[in-house]
Amino acid sequence: MPRPLVATIHLAALQHNLAVAKSHAPRSKAWAVVKANAYGHGLERAMRTFSDADGLALIEVDGAVRLREWGWTKPILLLEGFFDSADLPVCAAHGIQFAVHCNEQIDMIEKANLQAPVYVHLKLNSGMNRLGFAPDSLRAAHARLSGIAAVSSVTLMTHFANADDSGNAGLPLAEQVRRFEQATMGLPGQRSVANSATVLEHAELAADWVRPGIMLYGGTPGGRSAEAFGLKPAMSLESEIIGIQHIAAGEAVGYGSRFIAAKPMTIGVVACGYADGYPRHAPNGTPIMVDGHRTGLAGRVSMDMITVDLTDIPSARVGSKVELWGNKLPIDEVATAAGTIGYELMCALAPRVRVIEQ
Ligand SMILES: *Cc1c(COP(=O)(O)O)cnc(C)c1O
């Protein structure tokens, strides 16, 4: 028998969440963002399930080529562009669109002498100070790209740091919007600015293309309730109780004896650990469902096991069902308790975890 730990990917939820994204931005085309193995949900599976998307966006060129080999004929976008000039003929041959965020990339396109057309997404650094051209250098970059015969279209893109927290004093959303509008004013081409937070909370900024990621998987940016946005969890991580200990007051549980029982307790051992993607830094009390009841972590997360408080769940026994996250326990809630975000938990799902789809 395999280990009882299993991740279930809910295909209907993925489709539903894409429909929610499209309903927020009905006049925009939608890139379904499938980077990081579709946020842990499986790239090939996501491709099959997101057939209603207008394009798929990811990071790696080899993943993009695989999407073509698996039969995706609609647009594909490399969100960070290419990393090496050897990728350029590959992008041209497969019709893989790519971001251009620095002059070094333009140098490579100029030198590549491409035979097939390429479709570029010129990225503005509107204040996040990660990738992109500074506002005062965008027009020169646009002119250089427009002068390259193989460049068929230039879409204007930027990425928002705080769409889920628009008043953030470090960089208000409105300031990024202002910089984008000013830097791109009068330039031809489509616009692409909106991640999930923008789609969900500032749909008026949707523009020609939106780029939802986390919302497609039933999570939200900024720890808001996905359910309140009508999103459905696309990943459930479930396991079973594989052992039970009845301990006296004062007994300690697990490595480092981080949890010490204040009273007589029942402790359940769950087949799931940090080597499966469960966050090792999850504190005591991190929520977990056992046999339909909500309880909490008791003791440090081990490589292959976690320990949970079963004292108030008398029905629990070896073999009882455990939900680490999923339909009854939102992944964002577990992430918040563990000091991280749902994105990280999804992406960290380890290759050794059995995945089934439903
Ligand atoms: C990851 C990413 C997105 C999607 O972000 P979410 O917060 O998951 O919706 C959109 N655009 C770019 C450039 C990205 O890198």
From TrEMBL:
* Record key words, sorted: Isomerase, Pyridoxal phosphate
**Keyword Iron in annotation:** no
* Active site (UniProt): 35 (proton acceptor), 255 (proton acceptor)
Which family is this protein grouped under?
Belongs to the alanine racemase family.
From the Swiss-Prot or TrEMBL record, give the protein name.
Answer: Alanine racemase
Look up the record and report any one GO term of the cellular component aspect: cytosol
HAMAP family per record: Ala_racemase
Q: Per its Swiss-Prot or TrEMBL entry, what cofactor is needed? A: pyridoxal 5'-phosphate
Give the reactions, separated by semicolons, that this protein catalyses. L-alanine = D-alanine
Sites binding substrate sit at 130, 303
A single BP term in Gene Ontology: D-alanine biosynthetic process
Q: In which pathway does it act?
A: Amino-acid biosynthesis; D-alanine biosynthesis; D-alanine from L-alanine: step 1/1
Name the PANTHER family on file: ALANINE RACEMASE, ALANINE RACEMASE, CATABOLIC-RELATED
Q: What does this protein do?
A: Catalyzes the interconversion of L-alanine and D-alanine. May also act on other amino acids.
- Molecular-function GO term, any one: pyridoxal phosphate binding
Residue positions, PTM N6-(pyridoxal phosphate)lysine: 35
The Enzyme Commission number assigned here is 5.1.1.1
Q: Which organism is it from?
A: Noviherbaspirillum denitrificans
Tell me yes or no: is Phosphoprotein among this UniProt entry's keywords.
Answer: no
